[in-house]
Structure formats: C-alpha cells, structure tokens
Amino acid sequence: MSRSELTRSQKLALRYFAAAVTLFGVMIIFGLLSSLYYLFPGMLFEVFNFNTSKILHIDVLVIWLLMGFLGSVYWYLPKELDHEIEGIGMAEIFFWIFCAVVAAVAVIFLFVQYGPGNETTLWLINQGRKYVEAPRWAAIGLLAVMGVFAYNVAVTAMRAKRMTGIMWVLVLDLIPLLVVYLDAFPADPNMSRDLYWWWWLVHMWVESTWEVMIGCIMALVLMDVMGTSRRIVEAWLYIEVMLVLGAGILGLGHHYFWIGTPKYWLSIGGFFSALEPLPLLGMIVHAVYDAGMHRLKTNNRPAFYWITTEAFLNFIGAGIWGFMMTLPQINMFSHGTQWTVSHGHFAFYGAYVCGVIAVLYVVKQQVSGVGFLDGRLWKWGYGLLNLGMVGMVMALLMAGMAQAFYGRAIGGSTLMAFVNASENPWFVSGMWARTIFGFVFAGGYVALVCSMLRAPKRVPALYPQPEPA
Ligand code: HEM
Ligand code: HEM
Ligand SMILES: [Fe+2]
To answer: Closest Cα to atom 32, ligand 2: which residue?
Structure first.
C-alpha cells in the first residue's frame, strides 16, 4: 500500500499517530523533570514547581494515549466495516482543534500555572482534579472531539453493510467512556464526595472502558499480524470484556477505603478488585495460544513482540502490581506511597503504551509496503523501553516499600515518620535509580522514533500473508 492509496480516515490516523508520538516525548521530558525534584528538592524554587511538572506529565499521558486510540480506530474502521468514515471532514477539522487545545493548555500550565481558588480559575486555568486538570473550556473542547469521534464510529457502523462483533463492542464501549468523562467537571467542596465521583472517571477509564477499547484494538491487530481467525479473536474478546466489566465496576471500591465512605466498601472493593487480574490472565492465554497456533510465524516482528509484551505486562503491571496492594489490609500501609506510583507506571505502560506501539508498527509496515518488517533499530527501542520501565518500576517499588514499612508500619504514619522514611537510604537510592532508569527509557523512546522514521529494508514476505477468516 502506498501513501496515495490510503483512505482519508487512514491519513487522519497517521496525523493522530504523529501527534501521539510527539506528546509521548513531551511526557517523558516532564517525567524526567518531575523525578529530579526528588533528588534536588530546591530545584527551580518559585519558578516552576513539582506539582505543575507532574500535571504536565500525567495529563499529557492521558492525551497521547487517547490520541493513540483514536488513530488506531480511524486506521482500522474503513477496512473493518468496508465503508469510508461518515463525517470525516468534521473529524479532520477536530484533529486540529484537539492539537490547538492541547497546545494552549500546555502554555497555560507552563506560564500561568495556578490562580485564586474561584470559578474563573476553574474555567480558565486549572480544574485541579488529578489526571484531568485541564481548565473547563478545554475539557469542553475535548468532549467535543470525543463526541465527533463517537459520531464517526457510530454512524459509520450504522451505515455500513456489515457490522462485526468487534465493532459492536467498540461502539457500546464509547458510551460509558464518554459519559464518565463528564465527571471531570463538577467541583464539589466536600472532599469525600468529590473524590467519590472523581474515581468513577479515573478507575472506570483505566480499569474498564480503556481496557475494553485496547481489547478491541488488540483484536484487530492480532488478525493483521498473526492472521488469527475472527471467530477466535471475537470469542476471546467477549470473554475478556465480560470479566473486565464483571470485576472492574465494583473493583472501584479499592479507591473508597480511606476517603470517608461507609465501611462496606472495604469488603466490596477488596473482593471484586482481587478478581480483576482474571481477564488479564485470559489475555495472556489468548496471546500464547495464537502464537502457538501460528508457530510464531509473522511478517511483522516488532508488532508481534509488542503485542505479546502488552499481554504479559498488562497482566503483571495492572494485575499483579495492582493485586499486591488491593486488599485493604495491605493498602492501609501502601496507600499513596511510591508503591502506588510503581503500579501506576507499570500498568499504564503494559496495558496501553505497549498496545499503541504495536499498532504503530502495523501501520509502519502497511504504509511502507514491505513484506517483512524487522531490522535492528526497533530492537533497541524495545530493549531500552522495557529495561527502563522495569528498572523504574522496581526502583519505585523499593522506595514505596520503605515508605510503607518505615513511615507507616513502624513509624505510625506521623508527619515525622513520613519525613524519616523519605530520608531512609532505601527510599533515597530508589529515587536515584528511578531517574537513571528514566534516562534509559528516554533512550528507548529515541530509538523508537528513529525506527518509525527510517525507511525499512525492502524484504519480501517470509510467510504467506495471513488471510483472516
Ligand atoms: C522517563 C520516564 C518517566 C519518569 C522519569 C517519570 C517520572 C514520574 C514522576 C516523578 C512522577 C510523580 C510521582 C509522584 O507524585 O511522586 C510520575 C507520575 C506518574 N507517571 Fe511517570 N515517569 C516516566 C514515564 C512514565 C510513563 C511511560 C508513564 C505511563 C506509561 C507514566 C505514568 C505516570 C503516572 C500514571 C503517574 C501518576 C502516578 C501516581 O501519582 O500514582 N510515567 N512519573
Ligand atoms: C490498566 C489497568 C490499570 C491502570 C492503568 C492502573 C493505574 C493506576 C494508577 C495510575 C493509580 C494511582 C492513582 C492515583 O492515586 O493517582 C492506581 C491506583 C490503584 N490501582 Fe490501579 N491500574 C490498573 C489496574 C488495576 C488493577 C487490575 C488493580 C487490582 C487488581 C488495581 C489496583 C489499584 C489500587 C488498589 C490502587 C490504589 C493505590 C493506593 O491506595 O494508593 N489497579 N492504578
Ligand atoms: Fe482502580
């Protein structure tokens, strides 16, 4: 396939991928900067504070992953439904609106940073809710972008001659995905009530609606890269979705342990979130099963590696690392320490970053038209990104366990105990190791970008092109 043969929707997808990869880089820069404050606490005092750097790091994370999802869906939709996207003109315009909003918010966060605690600040500067801090006007803009996207997908699905199981799941998933975003808006002065609703957004995104979304995307990718039959992919998708929603919705309770909600949340949250690793385990069985069925034969090595890694690290980062601290008996000690940060990094990376990178390589192969995609550069990206992330996660775990042990279990959670734990050598060396592995991760990002930009060697397909049933 050459560039001129791409549909308009696929060209739009390429723009989304370019924006996503660029913002991935911006996120890493602010991640590294945020980590340096732990080593040099007086850094940039009263010029640029840790909290703003961290806001940029995590808000850009949410945005670039969303862009990666949008790109993936715009890429696959015309092929999946055999129909060009309805309302594509509007989608093209909204891509630029999306970019303009993100750029404007970044400028506000960089130069204005914060305002007085009133309505004007909420509307123009910062809504102050972690992960979705963008001011209200920008949140409305994002809602419009997602609304146009939902319109594109739903109306194309309605007009297309055939509807597939994957598309059904995707269309239905878009409804809660959008609805919970409305949670970014209300600002309740009662902290417990505010957190109660805010968790609907954060938890229901990453542990329900985004998991379903990436499940659909991985299903499409698997058919492309391994030629897995649609029947098998869809059967697994239904099982995974059922389990994700079955455990994930009430699993929300693991955020209600200590925010002033009734006691019954301890049992509900503990029980249901302990079941959350199950669907992720199902994904691994699925990936290994497919790889075995096709005897590891693939014409796209990098995509194949990233798909398998996504399945394993989603299970380990979200499932195991989440499970470790999801029972209230343990969470009482680990809550809000670097242990949580360890899980947050591992889960986001395993579930979503690896998945989006897999799609990038599928697209790379199809746009450049090579039969067999391999080479050396992608391996550097793969190796350094994974080494950097696993290193960071282990360093954070060590630091977090020191906080839980010295600050909570032994010190009794006093302010002094917190300060002592922060000076503990296990904590301090953990923070250094995190930054060092962060630079390794950044090296991996550079290799990833180079492998995307460099023209691949023209090697004919080694195996017969998969023909999904
Ligand atoms: C060079 C690599 C990175 C560095 C140095 C880095 C550093 C940091 C730092 C210092 C924080 C603030 C933690 C705190 O409040 O104590 C943070 C938060 C966070 N980062 Fe990163 N990060 C990096 C890459 C990533 C990646 C690749 C992801 C996602 C896949 C990610 C997701 C997050 C999330 C979700 C949080 C919020 C965690 C929480 O508060 O529990 N970061 N990061
Ligand atoms: C892809 C899926 C997941 C992602 C991206 C994810 C990400 C995160 C992040 C970023 C946080 C920190 C939130 C904050 O305080 O700012 C968090 C907290 C938490 N996650 Fe996950 N998570 C995932 C799946 C899971 C699963 C499957 C479990 C349980 C089995 C789990 C259990 C927890 C718990 C208990 C907390 C609260 C930690 C605390 O008390 O400080 N997570 N998660
Ligand atoms: Fe959660």
So the answer is: 322
